[in-house]
Amino acid sequence: MMKRYGILLSVFAIGANAAAQPPHYDFQTETCKATVTYDASQDAEAVKNTADFLFGFFNFGAEQKGSEIDLCRTRVSRLRSARFVDLVSVKALVADMSDGTEAYCELQTLEKRAAHEPALLREFPSSEACYPAVDALEGKTDTVQFWREMIAEHATRSGDPQGFLAKQHAHESAPDFQDWVRQQILTYGWHNCANGTLEHFRASERQYRAEAEQEFSRKFHLTEFDCDTSSVD
Q: Exposure check for the chain: N or C terminus, fewer CB within 10 A?
């Protein structure tokens, strides 16, 4: 009988110890397995979302089907609707990424519409420096000359400038050369320039992310283990 009671007491002790353990969330970072421990009074979903957002793989809706623009908007929606822990730096990071991603969605939308109406590109905020590409797309300036100057500038950043230029100029004999040039200007002349106007979002994101990671790590106990260092120099 005493043995039976001993077994029962052991079971109860194990159950009590398990109940005393604080809640935790196991997740995967880029190179490690990780666990974050938090207080039972805290919002578990917010903790999990924030851990994945800062250190792991947050579900931005990549599994959804649709166009690139649709997926971009889904990403913004996920960011703005998900619950995150109530930390100043995390809120700043989420807001910055939401605004930056939304601006990029607008850029993608304008570019799609501008395939037949280039003037629409002028609606993109703070893109005045990119207007020469729009002028070329509209035919207000020499389209081919703009393209030639554009690829000459790109060639200066190529490991093989002459080879790069030869490959580009080979298209000049193609029957669809004019349409191809316009697409090149839209993709590399306009897009690269307009996308550069969003750099302030990316710069502030880097700052906010560093602050958010530090603030989260001070508030929660985060442990990494089983790290894969094979890709680390």
A: C
